[in-house]
Structure formats: C-alpha cells, structure tokens
C-alpha cells in the first residue's frame, strides 16, 4: 500500500496522513459545505491512525471557479477521478447530509472499478431511494437562505455578512441543483457495510430515511443516534471519531 503522500490527487482533495495507517476514510461534506468544515474530523481521524481525505465540491473555496455539475452522478464521478483511491489502503466513506448520497454513488463507482469499500457512514443523510421525497428543493435566494437558517450548522453572524452569504448561496444552489435531478432505485446496492447515524432531535431527517439505508447494501447495516440536531457531529466529535476509526 502507498502512503497518501506517494499518490497523486487533485489539489482540492485535502489530505491528513497518519503514520502506519492501515486504511483511509474519505469525507463528503453536506450541501453547501466546504472541506474546511471537516478539518477537525479529519485531523481527529488521523490522530487515531486513519488516513483522512476531504473532497471539495465545485463552486466554493479553492474550486470557486469550477463550473457546477449537472447531477450527483457527475459529482461522484468527478470526485472518484480526482485521485488513485485504490492505492491508499482499505477505504471507508463518511458522508454528512447530501454527502451521504454522494458517498454512496462514489462507492458504486469504486466497486465498478474493483476498488473495495469496507464501509459507508451515512451521517444525517437520507437513503438514496428516498431523495425524491424532499423534492423540489428551494431555489430562490430567499428560500435557500431560509432553508440554511432552518438547517443550522452555520453561525448566524456569518449569514449577516453579505459577501459570505453570497458565496454560501452559490455553493448551496449548486448542490441543490445536482441533488434535484437525482433518483435511485430501491434495490440499488453496494457490498460495503452501511452504518447510518442520526441526531435524536434532527427535524430534517425522517426515521425511515435512515432506516432505508439497509436496503442499499448486501453487507451489514447498523443504525445509531447521538443526542442533537442535524449537526449533532459538532457536539460528539470524539465519539464519532472513535466509531468511524474502529476496524
């Protein structure tokens, strides 16, 4: 197995290398989220001996000038083609919110190319076959901003900054457009184990959206919860890191 520093990746794939790591975890942000929001998780995983990667979506941060993608399938393919994932050891995927669906499509591509994925962590994200239940997604500036406020996870003071709000709006709209055209058959499956995680007070995710992840794997399935809302992760970083880093 090569170490991450030996393997070529696009510069917008953020890497956190752990000495002597036996595997790697790829982190997929939520809709509108930038890689920077998951640096703390990635560093914590590296401290636990797991190589961590965070992928960056177009229309934000160092990919601000990159054109928006037409759909989740295209986004997953772009992320899959961003590096030599088969050379960084056993793969685990962690996707939060929309990132869980992107991670699922990434896993399907990996398996098509004979790259094994051990497990997928679906954090506060609905099962792929249930995505049409939330469509149509907000599309106007007013509705998107209201949705961001309802979602939480962003400091309200930042939302009052016009420049920040404009950049966030561009990223969220890009991701929502990609998600709006997404559909997945209930019997679409990956061989990786799927572990769904939710917040006990997450009003955005219905219970069956998490439970239905079980239908998308031929491997094992678990469902667990942490106290908190949609961004429960912010309050339980240590526990989630411990969970995800176990082999």
UniProtKB/TrEMBL annotation:
Pfam families the UniProt entry points to: Thioesterase
GO molecular function terms attached to this record: fatty acyl-CoA hydrolase activity; ligase activity
Keywords from the UniProt entry: Ligase, Virulence
Domain Thioesterase, residue spans: 26-245
One annotated GO biological process: lipid biosynthetic process
Catalyzed reaction equations: a fatty acyl-CoA + H2O = a fatty acid + CoA + H(+)
Family to which the UniProt record says this protein belongs: Belongs to the thioesterase family.
Protein's name according to its UniProt entry: Thioesterase TesA
Organism of provenance: Mycolicibacterium chitae (Mycobacterium chitae)
Lineage per the UniProt record: Bacteria, Bacillati, Actinomycetota, Actinomycetes, Mycobacteriales
């Amino acid at each position: 197995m090569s170490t991450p520093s030996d393997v070529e990746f696009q510069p917008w794939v953020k890497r956190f290398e752990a000495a002597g790591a036996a595997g790697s975890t790829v982190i997929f942000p939520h809709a509108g989220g930038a890689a920077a929001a998951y640096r703390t998780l990635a560093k914590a995983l590296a401290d636990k001996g797991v190589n961590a990667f965070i992928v960056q979506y177009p229309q934000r941060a160092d990919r601000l000038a990159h054109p928006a993608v037409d759909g989740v399938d295209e986004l997953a393919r772009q992320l899959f083609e961003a590096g030599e994932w088969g050379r960084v050891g056993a793969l685990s995927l962690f996707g939060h919110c929309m990132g869980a669906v992107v991670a699922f499509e990434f896993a399907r591509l990996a398996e098509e190319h004979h790259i094994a994925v051990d497990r997928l962590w679906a954090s506060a994200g609905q099962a792929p076959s249930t995505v049409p239940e939330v469509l149509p997604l907000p599309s106007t500036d007013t509705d998107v901003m209201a949705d961001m406020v309802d979602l939480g996870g962003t400091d309200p003071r930042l939302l009052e900054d016009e420049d920040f709000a404009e950049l966030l709006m561009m990223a969220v709209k890009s991701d929502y457009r990609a998600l709006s055209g997404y559909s997945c058959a209930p019997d679409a499956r990956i061989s990786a184990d799927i572990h769904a995680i939710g917040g006990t007070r997450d009003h955005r995710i219905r219970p069956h959206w998490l439970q239905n992840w079980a239908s998308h794997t031929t491997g094992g399935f678990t469902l667990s919860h942490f106290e908190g809302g949609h961004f429960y992760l912010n309050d339980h970083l240590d526990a989630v890191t411990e969970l995800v880093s176990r082999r």
